Amino acid sequence: MQLPQLVQTQFLSVHDAANVIHKIGLKTVFTRLADYIRADYLRWHDFEKCARVANHSTDGVIELMPISDANSYAFKYVNGHPKNTINGLPCVMAFGVLADVATGIPEFLSELTLSTALRTAAMSAVAAQELARPDSKTMALIGNGAQSEFQALAFHYLLGIEEIRLFDTDPKATEKLIANLQSTALRLKVCSSIAEAVRGANIATTVTADKTNAAILTADLIEPGMHINGVGGDCPGKTELHPDVLRRSAVFVEYEPQTRIEGDLQHLPADFAVTEFWQVLARQAPGRRDADQITLFDSVGFALQDYSALRFMRDAARELGLGQLVSLIPELVNPKDLFVLIHPDTHVNQEPHRDEASQPAVAPLLADTLPVPA
Amino acid sequence: MQLPQLVQTQFLSVHDAANVIHKIGLKTVFTRLADYIRADYLRWHDFEKCARVANHSTDGVIELMPISDANSYAFKYVNGHPKNTINGLPCVMAFGVLADVATGIPEFLSELTLSTALRTAAMSAVAAQELARPDSKTMALIGNGAQSEFQALAFHYLLGIEEIRLFDTDPKATEKLIANLQSTALRLKVCSSIAEAVRGANIATTVTADKTNAAILTADLIEPGMHINGVGGDCPGKTELHPDVLRRSAVFVEYEPQTRIEGDLQHLPADFAVTEFWQVLARQAPGRRDADQITLFDSVGFALQDYSALRFMRDAARELGLGQLVSLIPELVNPKDLFVLIHPDTHVNQEPHRDEASQPAVAPLLADTLPVPA
Asked: Is residue A253 part of a domain?
């Protein structure tokens, strides 16, 4: 009997992803994820890159973010709907796939809402390791929503930040952050204004959600030596920094063509000079020049970080035996015979004979749980 | 106790999709799918459209095809790897998602390999209903691979085609088609050359897989009144028709900007006149003018057809109670509190309390089958 080629996709649900993080521990997750991100950024020229593809609507945006090298293809689906919280929904939700470039098989399908929060914070910290003053101990955190705890802890674990100065227009968001982080070693200071939070801070992180051209940070708030980690300005019409803040700073970006469209950079002329961050990591461009320079990472989120996050989550899930196999792609005895799947004589849910030894150590195939039709 | 907002994604596996088709019957599937396609094409201006985003590699391509209207967003992931069959894998594999534009929630995740074969054939038949001679009874089918049976049956059921003239360079492919369709009312004639298959046929369908600029059909083979359904030429460097075939024909396309890049049209000058097919359906442009005109549908596959296919499969699966809920997106009590999912004090796999009455009639939530960690 001829056996079909096995084409299974490993599926990592939200619960699986949370389980991966619980089992590995958040500090190790950030450390390993930062290693994946740095390794991938150092292979910058290996990747086929493009700005993400966005479909805009009145209240939000849905984007696809593909990227590939010679071996792997990754894409992320992600939305941005700032008003979602009114209906009890996250503003940002995501999932994605890692596929084999040689065959096109989608090998790994994962939730990416949690993973996006992790990789965004890890990317911010990786950038700050190169751009912030090495003696940085305090960070202002403007915006205490869904992404804020991840930023606070990534900077705590990867840069040694000891004190976070909190501000949000919604006091309940700040209370939530404090409740979530009270058992950590971080000192958390609630501030009554952005100015109070930023004053004297070594790093200023902005991570607000409103879809508007805001000026969360203005030039008068910026002090010599400060590093600005601008995370929330990531969409046309959604910015956080007054253009003068960028003019006073050395500006670093993930992928210039995308940031010119989506970043706080959108308000500056096309010839305003910026540095792609991979050049700093590769020692092809300087990072921070001196202790007084103002540095700014105008982060919008680039597909390469999701490529890194997908690789990390896949590897970690494999190590831990988490995840499930799903039947996303047909398994065929004869690859030119797709019709057999729906031929009237075909018994629909016949499970292909499986060689158990060839199966990865994951939970049972989802299809096994399906009822067999009469 | 505050309850989290339920955010479930309905997942339709390959087995579920095959089951949908078995239960509804292929003739009704084609009829209903054609209705969905026509309805969506008649709303052409409601859609935000773009050419698909392709990542090319040595042996293939991986593409993302997004499209949206004010209510729904759809995208398809699809590969094209002609050499896959050597390793027992399909050349084309696909999956996709239908999402809610208002919130960004990915509501329906489905296999699309089977569905792509169905929608491609349904689209070909919908076009031929407008473009082929109404008295068409015979079709040449050049290329007898994975898509061929679907083409044969869509034309049988939707146009009344009675005889199919078969040619493939691989005789085993033709044998497979005959075995699959022997119990239908179609007359199947094996031909020893393309010329023999095409001679006297009312419709010539080309659906070959090689990634090369081929000339499967040349102008000398084309007879007055013929309709050419060019399906396999769908990628830069992958064409089937000699440019003179297009020059002799009235050429119809799905979405002109994409077909100029990907279709057989890629070999013709940018000002070569074509008609977008929606105009014919909307009676804004003529279809076939007279019985002797040669018409050509230069099909490459457009995102709108996948939007239609996803809608149809979602609706059909709902009617039949097929599919499963998967946890692709976090369910949160406080949408600004994503961190709670990985907080050390959070019990990872605690299932949110569910109101059974609010659940659609599908199989159990996949997450329910997960082992609870110790």
From this structure: yes
Closest CA to B21 of B31, B12, B29: B29
CA distance A259 to A236: 10
Pick from A13, A145, A349: CB nearest B328: A13
pTM comes to 0.90
Q: What is the DSSP letter of A371?
A: P
The domain that holds B287 is classified in CATH as 3.40.50.720
Structure tokens at B90: 């399909």
Does the structure show a pLDDT above 80 at A6?
Answer: no
- Alpha-carbon gap, residue A318 to A141, rounded angstroms: 35
Q: Which residues of A touch B59 (CB under 8 A)?
A: 102
Are the beta carbons of B13 and A370 separated by less than 8 Å?
A: yes
- The domain containing residue A254 runs over which residues? 132-302
| Shared domain check, B312 and B180 | no
CB contact under 8 A, A336 and B176: yes
Residues of B in contact with A210 (CB under 8 A): none
Do the chains contact at A53 and B64, CB–CB below 8 Å?
yes
Catalytic (active site) residue A290: no
Tell me the per-residue pLDDT of B31-84, one tens digit each, with 9 for 90 and over: 999 999 999 999 999 999 988 899 999 889 999 999 999 999 999 999 999 899
CB nearest A335 (choices: B4, B26, B89): B89
Mind listing the pLDDT tens digit of every residue in chain B (374 residues)? 567 777 899 999 999 999 999 999 999 999 999 999 999 999 999 999 988 899 999 889 999 999 999 999 999 999 999 899 898 899 999 999 999 999 999 999 999 999 999 999 999 999 999 999 999 999 999 999 999 999 999 999 999 999 999 999 999 999 999 999 999 999 999 999 999 999 999 999 999 987 788 899 999 999 999 999 999 988 888 899 999 999 999 999 999 999 999 999 999 999 999 999 999 999 999 999 999 999 999 999 999 999 999 999 999 999 999 999 999 999 999 999 999 999 877 644 444 444 433 333 333 344 333 332 33
User: Which residues are CB-neighbours of B193 under 8 A, at least 6 positions away?
Assistant: B167
| Residue that has been written with the tokens 């409740």 in this structure | A179
- pLDDT given at position A346: 62
Shortest CA distance from B351: residue in chain A: A15
Do both B245 and B296 map to the same domain? yes
Radius of gyration of chain B (CA): 23
- Is A66's CB within 8 Å of B73's CB? no
* Domains contained in chain A, number: 1
B295 and B198 in a common domain: yes
Catalytic residue among A16, A40, A168, A234: A234
Task: Assign B220 to helix, strand or coil.
Answer: helix
Question: Which of A341, A346, A347, A351 has the highest number of chain B CBs within 10 A, making it the mutation to test binding with B?
Answer: A341
Nearest CB partner across the interface for B62, out of A14, A93, A99: A99
* Amino acid at position B213, single letter: N
Q: Which residue of A has its CA nearest to B17?
A: A342
- Please answer yes or no on whether B64 and A64 come within 8 Å at the CB atom: yes
Q: pLDDT digits over A26-60, tens only?
A: 999 999 999 999 999 999 999 999 888 999 998 89
Q: Which residues of B144-172 are buried (b: 16+ CB within 10 A; e: fewer)?
A: bbbbbbbbbbbbbbbbebeebbbbbeeee
Closest CA to B93 of A5, A194, A279: A5
Considering the domain architecture, whether residues B272 and B140 belong to the same structural domain is answered as yes
3-state secondary structure of A7: coil
Other beta carbons within 10 Å of B339: 24
Question: Phi/psi of residue A221, each to 5°?
Answer: -85, -15
CB contact under 8 Å between A18 and B342, yes or no, is: yes
Q: Distance between the two ends of chain B, CA-based, in angstroms?
A: 25
The answer to whether residue A172 sits within a structural domain is yes
Q: Nearest Cβ partner of A68 from B62, B80, B149? A: B62
